[in-house]
């Protein structure tokens, strides 16, 4: 979340930031429980209440001393005691209102997005995104390439109909070499990122509401999550490994010498896709359950933008070794995620759709998540703790990489050539053909 002091002292900058993201103060106030909440008026009230309550407590202490003095002198202090009862009631009322104000301010801050970095292009949507580079040339086909939702079922390696009977829409069953290709991609990515300095982690797939609040999924995006209940305990299925990985060091104070922390994890991911009805309803692009290899870094404010560039390069390396054409774009203010200060999307070329589609999104969240999750470090021994900067990115989305392999390596006879980089993980299989 943003720092309250920053918000209070920079009203116009905050309103301008919201506008750059296509929002207004009224949009934030439309969140349940925030109707009419004005953080600037509330903060003024908070300050006034603190001053008033502290004044009353001071008066209570001074008067208490006077009551004690009169008691020792065997003098009547009933008038002061009666007065102090009224003061005690006013302190209790002031404290109760102060907690209400603080709670409203926190609820407001929890749904305000991060401030975009100055290098981010300003625009209301994806049309304002800026292409940074293209790598690789899309293959020239001598036939009409098929989309994966046709190619996979024809090869007998993807089954959407049976998945729908089991679980409903937006699920898939992988058969035979389809399942093995998914597994090969996971192993290939984990090995590659491990060789580039990331520490592999298997985190929990169920997390608490506090953990999701720490990374910014709650409270704003609860509708996108799958919630579970077991007895009196509620947990959520992770929408991405970013959530547990970012919070591994919650409430700890790291030392500068330990940084950057670089983690990689393969996990299933679960998303309700509540706001995406009608989008990508065919195939594997937008599923309720999918696999992803996630990269997370915890680092210092001074190095976080350089670490973001490095993370993008790490994700790109997967596509380079698979010889898949792609492009990198920097997202505009209106297209960035809630917690991000700067985001690069890597988009792979899909010949079956004749379009570049997102396969990785790498973001620097600056101290936005760190403030929510209490992620801190010391620059030097004995120094005051500072907030870390957190970064996350897909390295890559496994199902979308499988799509890219199927569509880019398809042959006229309907078979798919296995990229050389994956063959060691496929038991030497060179081609996927119809069973």
> Helical amount among residues, as a percent range?
25-40%
Widest β-sheet, arrangement of strands:
1-11-12-13-16-10-9-4
| Global mean pLDDT | 96
CATH architecture of the largest domain: 2-Layer Sandwich
Rg over C-alpha atoms, rounded to the nearest angstrom:
27 Å
Unreliable segments of 5+ consecutive residues: none
Q: What is the number of helical segments per DSSP (H or I, 4+ residues)? A: 13
> How many β-strand runs?
18
The geometry reads as: elongated
The CATH H-level superfamily of the largest domain is Bira Bifunctional Protein, Domain 2
What count of domains describes the coordinates?
Answer: 2
Which CATH class of the largest domain applies here? Alpha Beta
What is the fold-level CATH name, i.e. the topology of the largest domain? BirA Bifunctional Protein, domain 2
Intertermini distance: 53 Å
Q: What class, by secondary structure content?
A: alpha+beta
Residue fraction in strands: 15-25%
Described by strand count, sense and barrel closure, the largest sheet is: 8 strands, mixed
């Amino acid at each position: 979340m943003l720092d309250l002091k920053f918000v209070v002292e920079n009203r116009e900058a905050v309103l301008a930031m919201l506008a750059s993201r296509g929002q207004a103060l009224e949009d934030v106030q439309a969140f349940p429980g925030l109707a009419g909440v004005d953080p600037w008026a509330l903060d003024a009230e908070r300050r006034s209440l603190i001053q008033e309550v502290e004044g009353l407590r001071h008066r209570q202490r001074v008067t208490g001393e006077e009551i004690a003095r009169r008691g020792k002198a065997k003098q009547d202090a009933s008038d002061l005691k009666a007065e102090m009862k009224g003061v005690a009631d006013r302190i209790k009322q002031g404290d109760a209102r102060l907690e209400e104000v603080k709670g409203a301010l926190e609820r407001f801050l929890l749904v305000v997005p991060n401030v975009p970095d100055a290098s981010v292009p300003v625009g209301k949507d994806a049309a304002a995104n800026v292409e940074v580079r293209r790598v690789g040339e899309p293959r020239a086909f001598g036939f009409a390439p098929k989309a994966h939702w046709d190619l996979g079922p024809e090869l007998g390696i993807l089954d959407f109909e049976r998945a729908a009977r089991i679980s409903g829409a937006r699920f898939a069953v992988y058969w035979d070499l389809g399942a093995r290709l998914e597994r090969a991609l996971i192993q290939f990515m984990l090995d590659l990122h491990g060789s580039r300095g990331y520490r592999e982690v298997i985190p929990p797939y169920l997390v608490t509401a506090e953990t999701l609040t720490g990374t910014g999924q709650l409270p704003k995006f609860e509708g996108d999550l799958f919630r579970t209940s077991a007895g009196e305990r509620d947990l959520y299925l992770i929408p991405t490994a970013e959530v547990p990985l970012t919070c591994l060091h919650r409430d700890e104070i790291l030392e500068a010498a330990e940084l950057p922390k670089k983690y990689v994890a393969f996990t299933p991911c679960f998303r309700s896709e509540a706001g995406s009805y009608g989008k990508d309803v065919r195939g594997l692009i937008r599923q309720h359950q999918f696999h992803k290899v996630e990269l997370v870094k915890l680092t210092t404010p001074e190095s976080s933008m350089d670490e973001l560039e490095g993370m993008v390069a790490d994700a790109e390396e997967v596509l380079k070794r698979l010889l898949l054409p792609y492009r990198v774009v920097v997202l505009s203010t209106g297209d960035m995620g809630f917690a991000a200060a700067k985001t690069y999307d890597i988009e792979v070329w899909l010949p079956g759709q004749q379009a570049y589609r997102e396969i990785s999104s790498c973001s620097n969240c600056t101290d936005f998540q760190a403030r929510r999750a209490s992620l801190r470090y010391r620059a030097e021994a004995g120094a005051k703790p500072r907030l870390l900067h957190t970064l996350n990115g897909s390295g890559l989305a496994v199902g979308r990489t499988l799509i890219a392999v199927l569509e880019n390596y398809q042959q006229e006879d309907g078979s798919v050539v296995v990229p050389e980089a994956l063959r060691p993980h496929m038991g030497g299989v060179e081609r996927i053909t119809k069973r």
